[in-house]
Amino acid sequence: MNPILKNILALIAGIIIGSIVNIGLIMLGHTLVPPPEGMNPMDMESLKEFMPMFTPSHFVAPFLAHAFGTLVGAFAAAKIAANHQLKFALGIGVWFLYGGISMIIDFPSPLWFNILDLGAAYLPMAWLGWKFAKVE
């Protein structure tokens, strides 16, 4: 396969696979740690309204979703990419980091979670995904 097409496929696959893992873990988290009574977890306005009622346990699933979504997406991108695997893995990390920054801007969450999420869930996990892919 043409290396350029293979690299484009790596980016697309990394984003899609990482997103599927992310949303799957978020949904699983809602079953393990139910949201506050009356909150609709699929409605962004409801999420904003009920965010002050969240306990630290409510932030475990989002952190794990962000971290593992990025890890798996970066792993997939590094495995599929024809070359420059680290760059593609980190590109996935930057993509999801942008999403994390957007969420922090849009939704008030505790400072400790923002620091943990932005500092540990994206670029370090993308690097780890590249390492797990054992390429280069």
Please characterize this protein's 3D structure.
- The chain has 136 residues and is an all-alpha fold.
- Helix content is 74%, strand content 0%.
- The chain has helices spanning 3-32, 44-50, 60-80, 85-106, 111-120, 123-133.
- The relative contact order is 0.18.
Secondary structure: number of strands: 0
Q: State the secondary-structure class.
A: mainly alpha
- Distance from N terminus to C terminus (CA atoms, Å) equals 18 Å
Poorly predicted tracts of residues: none
N-to-C series of helices and strands: HHHHHH
Number of helices: 6
> Residue share in helices?
over 70%
Query: Radius of gyration, Cα only, in angstroms?
Result: 16 Å
Cα shape? elongated
Number of domains: 1
What is the typical, i.e. mean, pLDDT?
93
Report the sheet with the most strands, covering strand number, pairing sense and barrel closure.
none
User: How much beta, percentage-wise?
Assistant: under 5%
Give a quick rundown of the structure.
The protein is mainly α. 74% of the residues lie in helices and 0% in strands.
Offer a few descriptive terms:
136 residues, mainly alpha, 74% helix
List the helices and strands and how they pair.
Layout: H1 3-32, H2 44-50, H3 60-80, H4 85-106, H5 111-120, H6 123-133
Helix pairs in contact: 1-3, 1-4, 3-4, 3-6, 4-6
